[in-house]
Specification:
- By secondary structure, this protein is α/β, with parallel strands linked by helices.
- It folds into two domains: 3-101, Enolase-like, domain 1, CATH 3.30.390; 104-345, TIM Barrel (Alpha-Beta Barrel).
- Helix content is 38%, strand content 14%.
- The protein has eleven helices and twelve strands.
- The protein has helices at 38-52, 60-69, 77-98, 127-144, 163-180, 196-206, 223-232, 245-254, 270-283, 296-306, 352-355; strands spanning 3-12, 15-22, 27-31, 113-119, 148-151, 185-189, 213-215, 237-239, 260-261, 287-288, 315-316, 337-339.
- α1 packs across α3 (77-98), α3 packs across α9 (270-283) and α8 (245-254) runs parallel beside α9 (270-283).
- The protein starts with a strand and ends in a 26-residue tail after the last helix.
- Bound molecules: magnesium ion (MG).
- Residues 189, 191, 215-216, 241 line the site of magnesium ion.
Length: 381
Amino acid sequence: MKVIKIEQFFPLPRVRLVKITTDTGIVGWGETTLEGKPRSTMTAVDEIGDYLIGKDPLRIEHHWQHIYRSAFFRGGNILMSALSGIDQALWDIAGKYYEVPTYKLLGDAVRDRIRVYAHWGIGSTTDKGKEQARQRLDMLQKKGGYKAFKSGPGGKWRAHEPPAFIDAFVERAYLMREWVGPDVELAFDFHGKMTPALAIEVCHEIKGMRPMFVEEPVPQENIDALKLVSDHVTFPIATGERFLTRWGFRDVFEKQAAAYLQPDISHTGGITELKKISNMAEVYYMHMAPHCAIGPVAFSASMQVDAVVPNFLIQEQVDKCLGAGLLKEDWMVNDGHIELPTKPGLGFEINEEIAEQDRGIYEEELGGEFYHESDGSVADW
Ligand SMILES: [Mg+2]
């Protein structure tokens, strides 16, 4: 079997797909979405594509090593997102070639179904805000039986904020706990925009409502700062959606700087690398809560790894992960879980008329501009 064609499609906002076609007629799909850098990643896939044409798609580890190491400069968001999508597509081909779900080739499942969480929160305590939050919570609980939700404090945070600003978030967190009761998990994403001191202060204020975790309490670059937060907070700290490869996580492991890791399968190095990171995490008693805030191809690939990782905790999904018209059948959530995929490869049949469209670059994908209103300085997203 040989790779004969590599194509890219941009069917939806924040959904970039790569399709690899082989001379047997078997095709594989992967997701290369990199928020803020869609054109750069597309070019990286084109460059890698020249290497893959004519090659045996089943030599996945070999191709991963070549793409990562051979051009002297390793890693980085753009190369890794391109490699991640290509790796997913190669695993899709491998599963279809051997006529098994991809997870069967990774050691087979260690669980019967995959626990997922949805995005839900009380964004505002106005009557309208609460009504909207109530409706979405009812819908998620009725339709999917979700027992875990994530939201954020949102907004722009300076190095410190006055009590009223902090309390507005803290009060919403406690109200959410009141609404869902003690049998449901609630997590909060700080989006890496607080200082260690502020993150610790805010975490102390919400600890009484028993969060499942706080995600990215501080920016990504300094693992000692993350460790400082973890050491001062009594509930689990999670991080990792912006970390790439095992080497990117190495400091987190060695400093025991977080409890849960959230690599994104479309950035961190695909199925191949997510499994290796997960296996390393097991050594440090860290659990996996893989990030997925893009499309259903990445989500499907992530579930293949979730199936085989003993130290898996929970999988993120945003609503469009479940199908978004790209998959012929949506993933169904019942009792907060998705049954193990049964179809060969990544487990979906793609809706080609929708998937094979190129709708160009959406403005929202370029990241936007964020400034503090008070003084015009740059704020974090
Ligand atoms: Mg996040």
